[in-house]
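Troubleshooting entry. The earlier prediction with A1CAB gave an output that would not parse, so I re-checked the input for stray whitespace and re-submitted. Clean input:
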Amino acid sequence: MTTNTKITFIGAGNMASSIIAGLVESDSAVEITVSDPNESQLDVVRAQFPNCHTTTDNHQAVSTADVIVLAVKPQVMQVVCEGLEPSVQKTKPMIISVAAGVSESSLSRWLGGELPVVRCMPNTPALVGAGMSGLYANSRVSAEQKNLAESMLRAVGVVMWLDNEDMLHAVTAVSGSGPAYFFLVMEAMQQSAESFGFTPEQARLLVQQTAFGAAKLAMESVDSAAVLRAKVTSKGGTTEAAINDLQASGLEGIFDSALKAAANRSIVLSGGQPAIEKS
Ligand SMILES: NC(=O)C1=CN([C@@H]2O[C@H](COP(=O)(O)OP(=O)(O)OC[C@H]3O[C@@H](n4cnc5c(N)ncnc54)[C@H](OP(=O)(O)O)[C@@H]3O)[C@@H](O)[C@H]2O)C=CC1
Ligand SMILES: O=C(O)[C@@H]1CCC=N1
């Protein structure tokens, strides 16, 4: 990224804030503008990122942008893109959409066509520089623009390029929505810990440090998750009792079903019919 790269975010919600936080934290010397109709949302942005420009006017926000990050809900994307069409057709910036299930062909059509479009499926751990993003570029994205998109998302985590746009449904199901699955498990474990008599603070510490330690160990070890699990599970011991209970409840099937529900929802958001069957 060069010092004068101008990046405009349309939508100042959870995902935009997560990426902006990572970019700001990474000291990337970029000029960031954020546009959102909601002034109170912009107040949050101003408080968190005092060096970002903010506006409620999408046209003004994109007028000199090199890169536009579309970070609104899929349901309002068409209206937003059609509103931006006259501006972007003048300046032809690179478009990066983080929306789940909004296809490159729809984005291109709504924006008036002939634009470099990157679809990105990031996740909220971008907020702490530990994001995971799947990226897909249309044929109008130059090698230089690909590098720029990659370096933006690498500033907030790890990047995986995809040749097949359809695989973004699966990335959405695994890593886009994925943090929520782990948080749900953490919530459930914390509730259970509290039922033993721990305070909420104690329960949170026990669970968070365990989740962090398990993730760090999995990242740093050459062993697979299955091997790492076996190393915790003493024969006839406590872990075995818990794992047997989880597996008797059909845990693997529950996760397979949940991930496929997410992927199918992504397909439906893109205008298709749910097509992915449970294993
Ligand atoms: N949250 C996540 O973990 C992830 C989200 N995504 C994708 O990111 C996108 C945004 O999600 P998320 O950040 O969670 O959603 P949020 O609702 O938090 O953010 C969207 C923001 O866009 C604003 N907005 C609405 N209309 C306009 C408009 N016309 N112009 C500019 N801004 C507008 C909304 O304002 P208001 O609230 O007033 O409507 C809101 O502040 C979605 O498409 C989602 O699929 C992708 C990966 C992960
Ligand atoms: O729930 C959603 O639709 C978005 C996409 C992935 C994570 N959040």
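This one parsed fine. The radius of gyration is 21 Å.
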